[in-house]
UniProtKB/TrEMBL annotation:
Taxonomic superkingdom: Bacteria
Protein's organism: Kribbella jiaozuonensis
Residues that span the membrane, as ranges: none
Segments forming domain AB hydrolase-1: 27-259
Keywords associated with the record: Hydrolase
Name this protein carries in UniProt: Alpha/beta fold hydrolase
GO MF annotation list: hydrolase activity
Length: 284
């Protein structure tokens, strides 16, 4: 059954498209997608979880049918947090929610769940292939082999900071071919050129400031960090060596590539189901 669609408005006036998979009596699970995806990434996962959760997805600003602000400054993590808070108030204002996020969705969600006010509204967090940028800043300061290996995997981040060339490459199709060689995925029909072009502002607004001046952001929220072992973009140590910041941490290294929610939605659904049951004190 397709989700119902509605719109909520963030603090700065940005309209956010929200998709609700029903089951309002169940615990709410809010799913946050990454780059260059939109909320459709979560459809196969949501379909497997609607018996257990009130599943909510949304198009992050710049993606899907949400507004696409033109200013890079409109894509800071604080603005993204305001979007999440608007979705939270719109769909589950009176209960803690579970959070499932992937890629840049996880980067955002780490910012949310390390905010003292939002921690109280977060029952659990399942993170796939996405670190906190602040935690990454401290990780890279180690200057060891693991940090160097992650820098090599992160080459594309520096490329996205170049003027006009990355946008041209997406529009002409060159970048699609290059990135698809790294990990084959068949999802172009669910993405628009806007998802690719506007989403790069996420990198430009946040990465360098956070890596240069990372904040000490911690959380008591129960976290499941899922690291696919064949991820070409995010190494396992960056995602999992975070007990300093998230003491209530569970780590799962699984077989697969970066786009797990699309390529193995059944496994993602099962990991979420197990984690949330363990958090609730139930038998997994």
């Amino acid at each position: 059954m397709p989700p119902s669609k509605s719109t909520t408005t963030s603090r700065d006036g940005t309209r956010i498209a929200v998709y609700d998979y029903g089951n309002p009596d169940a615990p709410t699970l809010i799913c946050v997608h990454g780059y260059p995806d939109n909320a459709s990434l979560w459809e196969p996962v949501a379909e497997r979880l609607t018996a257990d959760f009130h599943v909510v997805t949304y198009d992050v600003r710049g993606a899907g049918t949400s507004d696409q602000p033109s200013a890079t400054s409109a894509y800071t993590l604080d603005r993204l947090q305001e979007d999440f808070e608007a979705v939270l108030e719109h769909t589950a204002p009176n209960q803690p929610v579970h959070v499932l996020a992937h890629d840049w969705g996880s980067i955002q969600a780490w910012h949310f769940i390390t905010d003292p006010e939002l921690q109280a509204k977060s029952a659990s967090f399942t993170s796939i292939s996405g670190p906190s940028l602040d935690h990454a800043g401290y990780f890279l300061r180690r200057r060891n082999r693991a940090a160097l290996r992650q820098l090599l995997h992160s080459w594309y981040i520096f490329y996205f900071h170049l003027p006009w060339l990355p946008e041209l490459a997406w529009r002409k199709g060159w970048a699609h071919r290059a990135f698809n060689r790294l990990e084959q995925q068949d999802a172009e029909e669910n993405r628009s050129i806007g998802d690719y072009v506007h989403g790069m502002k996420l990198y430009r607004a946040n990465v360098l400031p956070r890596l240069i001046r990372p904040a000490q952001r911690s959380t008591d929220v129960p976290v499941l960090a899922v690291s696919p072992d064949a991820d070409p973009f995010v190494t396992t140590p960056l995602q999992t060596e975070i007990a300093r910041w998230a003491p209530n941490l569970t780590v799962k290294v699984v077989r697969g590539g970066h786009w797990m929610p699309r390529n193995d939605p059944g496994l993602v659904a099962e990991l979420v189901r197990q984690h949330t049951r363990e958090v609730a004190g139930l038998e997994a």
